[in-house]
Amino acid sequence: MNTIVMKFGGSSVADNEKLKTVASKIISMYEKQNKIIVVVSAQGKTTDKLINEAYELSNKPNNREMDVLLSSGEQVSIAKLSILLNDLGYSAVSLTGWQAGIFTNNANQNALIENIDVDRINKELDEGKIVIIAGFQGYNENLDITTFGRGGSDTTAVAIASAMQAKNCYIFSDVDGVYTVDPNKISEAKKIPALSYREMLELSSEGAKVLHGRCVEIAEKYKIPIITKSTFNSNAGTVISDIIEENTIKSVAKKEISRISIIGTGIVRNINFMRKLLDVIEKNKFDILELQITESKISVDFKNIITDDIVQELNKMI
User: What is the pLDDT of residues 88-130, one digit of tens each?
Assistant: First the structure.
């Protein structure tokens, strides 16, 4: 049997109806004779709500108590999902970060995972249970709860996949993969079927919100394929792995209002695309503040405000 990790973000578990959709995805994968580990985020905007409420009580909330507070959102999600799966006839157990053996350093709100003791996870899997783990949290040497910061549930999922030597790690959200540009702004955006870890890291650094950079770094280190998919359809997603396709431009990212980045392994040798980019800059009379070129990314900072029309034009060149 293969071990599969499935992670569901806050928008995927936002209410009870969406939890039912998540449960059906889990059951489908479980019935294919897989051992299933599920990692979930807090429901919807719960974490933001808890942060705001804490700051209504104090201008400088105690760091330890903030971790106790913020970790509660994921615990609600795992309990609800486990209740639902058990009611549907599938044995499931929810585990907090410490119950799942996720040991971290002593930092608050930005803790780093140091080790995962997988004994409890393996015990539950061997009993045929679906194991549902709270993302975003662990425990430290003082037995205090710690949290991982933004994107922390992605980090939990990939770290567990690595520790369990899982076949794949699926990251489910409200988008069905990584696109050449932001599909919410550019209707001609095209889904990218595959990216290297390095390309995904470059995209994450430019503000792409599909995956958190820390989780991609872990996946690259332990060679765990990440598959990003939508919770709400069955479309093919994007596979992030160590497969590299040379000289192919993959994506255009606009960061803030005056920075454009073009991502793709081998882009530094793609002279044809470089010429096209310079033609766009010259045609629009843009003033360049800074130009950075690496093996897999060209980033240009302009004096000018860059509109989505320019992003759309560059997207057509991919």
Answer: 999 999 999 999 999 999 999 999 999 999 999 999 999 999 9
Count of beta carbons in the 10 Å neighbourhood of residue 37: 26
Select from 295, 302, 265 the least CA-distant residue to 280. Answer: 302
Q: Which helix (H) or strand (E) holds 309?
A: helix 308-316
Task: Tell whether 304 is covered by a domain.
Answer: yes
The answer to whether 237 touches 173, Cβ cutoff 8 Å, is: no
- Annotate 8-22 with DSSP letters as a single string: E-TTTTSSHHHHHHH
278 shares a domain with 138: no
Query: Which distant-in-sequence residues (6+ apart) come within 8 Å of 133 by Cβ?
Result: 37, 38, 39, 40, 78, 94, 95, 97, 100, 121, 156, 160
pTM of the model: 0.81
192 belongs to a structural domain: no
SS3 per-residue string spanning 52-66: HHHHHHCCCCCHHHH
Domain count, the chain: 2
Do residues 134 and 276 share a domain? no
| Distance from C-alpha of 224 to C-alpha of 220, rounded to nearest angstrom | 7
Long-range CB pairs of 20-25, under 8 A, 24+ apart, other chains included: 20/84, 21/231, 21/232, 22/81, 22/172, 22/231, 23/81, 23/84, 23/85, 23/88, 25/172, 25/231
Tokens of 108: 């608050």
Q: Per the structure block, which two tokens stand in for 275?
A: 């010429």
